[in-house]
Amino acid sequence: MSAASLPGGSYVEYARPPDDGNRYEVVDGEVLTTPSPGSGHQRVARELFRKLDAYVTGHAIGEVL
Question: What is the three-class DSSP state of 54?
Answer without folding.
Answer: helix
